TrEMBL record:
Reactions listed under catalytic activity: Hydrolyzes free adenine bases from 7,8-dihydro-8-oxoguanine:adenine mismatched double-stranded DNA, leaving an apurinic site
Record-given protein name: Adenine DNA glycosylase
Keywords: 4Fe-4S, DNA damage, DNA repair, Glycosidase, Hydrolase, Iron, Iron-sulfur, Metal-binding
Enzyme Commission number, as recorded: 3.2.2.31
Example of a GO biological process term: base-excision repair
InterPro entries with a match to the protein in the record: A/G_AdeGlyc_MutY (IPR005760), DNA_glycosylase (IPR011257), HhH-GPD_domain (IPR003265), HhH_base_excis_C (IPR023170), HhH_motif (IPR000445), MIG/MutY (IPR044298), MutY_C (IPR029119), NUDIX_hydrolase-like_dom_sf (IPR015797)
Domain of life: Bacteria
Annotated cofactor note: Binds 1 [4Fe-4S] cluster.
CDD domains: ENDO3c, NUDIX_DNA_Glycosylase_C-MutY
Protein's job: Adenine glycosylase active on G-A mispairs. MutY also corrects error-prone DNA synthesis past GO lesions which are due to the oxidatively damaged form of guanine: 7,8-dihydro-8-oxoguanine (8-oxo-dGTP).
Single GO MF annotation: purine-specific mismatch base pair DNA N-glycosylase activity
Domain HhH-GPD: 35-186
Pfam families: HHH (PF00633), HhH-GPD (PF00730), NUDIX_4 (PF14815)
């Protein structure tokens, strides 16, 4: 029994019944794949269902405003995925008459779709024989075939892609691809996998050589940058709130946030007050002492504090009523803060 047959047999007995596995609609499969990038299935599932409910077709997604899309995405992180999702929906409507492409060659041309995602959509929607390689697949292949190449290197990624293609089932590439990813997610997990009960343990080279814990190899370390963000909830004299839309290429692009003072190091409450006093005529000021938070992203650690300012002024630009604030897409760390103080 070869590798593919074993993986598929295991999958048919152990797979999770997920909604995007019960369709060959390329649009729905695309939605699920974009949502599940950098996201666990349990976290992504309710977002997928919400998106399908709000935007049942690619026309609905294309016709939505970016603000609607970002609000629905709120909490998933990596917001460029949502912006690319919206952009690509418009392209599919304009250039493909709303018929979502289902071939690798077409899919790879669309914004936000890389080699893995194009392979996944093509194989799951049209059974195209192109292998998927994600983190789970790297791990399974590295262990089963004892490959000690550093997966952070492009040359290694090319090797793994060729290996995945070589072991791909010609008859059932769609099921094979689902199976190998599910196997990595449920059985061949990163830490302490149950190798004794694994259907591949008799052919797994890493198991034979006691190298399971060492594979796959990933030598490149992520440098984490520390940032200090002091958010000031500014309320003007008639009860409106000051928020600004983030622009540029940094985190949270096109999301809204409160007035913010960013510093290289932690600053004191007095320093915050002094800075804010330069822009506002202050009637009341205080620090939300119990809501300091450390928000960790893949490459950044955000040290966040929240303050309140009541100003005597009537603000004109970038001000919103309380109800409008609740409807704006904001970073999840701000959303959580607003929920806690019953904003």
């Amino acid at each position: 029994m070869n590798f593919s047959t074993k993986i598929i047999n295991w999958y048919q007995q152990n797979f999770r019944d997920l909604p995007w596995r019960n369709t060959n609609d390329a649009y729905k499969i695309w939605l699920s794949e974009i949502i599940l990038q950098q996201t666990r299935v349990n976290q992504g599932l309710p977002y997928y269902l919400n998106f399908i409910n709000a935007f049942p077709t690619v026309f609905d997604l294309a016709n939505a405003s970016e603000q609607e899309v970002l609000k629905l995405w709120q909490g998933l992180g990596y917001y460029s995925r949502a912006r690319n999702l919206h952009f690509t929906a418009k392209i599919v409507v304009e250039q493909y008459n709303g018929i979502f492409p289902n071939t690798y060659a077409e899919l790879i041309q669309l914004k936000g779709i890389g080699t893995y995602t194009a392979a996944a959509i093509a194989s799951f929607s049209s059974n195209e024989p192109v292998a998927v390689v994600d983190g789970n697949v790297f791990r399974v292949l590295a262990r089963v075939f004892s490959v000690n190449y550093d997966i952070s290197q492009n040359t290694s990624k090319k090797y793994f892609q060729e290996l995945a293609q070589n072991v791909l089932s010609e008859k059932n590439p769609n099921i094979h691809n689902q199976a190998i990813m599910e196997f990595g997610a449920l059985q061949c997990v990163p830490k302490n996998p149950n190798c004794e009960s694994c259907v591949l343990n008799t052919s797994c080279e890493a198991y034979k050589l006691n190298l399971v814990a060492e594979l796959p190899v990933k030598l490149k370390k992520v440098e984490v940058r520390k940032r200090y963000l002091n958010y000031i909830i500014v309320q003007d004299s008639i009860g409106n709130y000051l928020l600004q839309k983030r622009t540029g290429t940094g985190i949270w692009k096109n999301l809204y946030e409160f007035y913010c003072i960013e510093s290289e190091n932690e600053i004191t409450e007095k320093e915050v007050l002094k800075s804010v006093s330069q822009d506002f005529s202050i009637e009341d000021f205080y620090h939300y002492n119990n809501f300091d938070v450390v928000h960790k992203l893949s490459h950044q650690q955000l040290n966040i504090k929240f303050y309140f300012v009541k100003t005597k002024q009537v603000l004109v630009e970038n001000v919103y009523t309380l109800q409008e604030v609740k409807e704006l897409p904001v970073p999840i760390v701000l959303h959580n803060f607003m929920e806690k103080i019953v904003f």
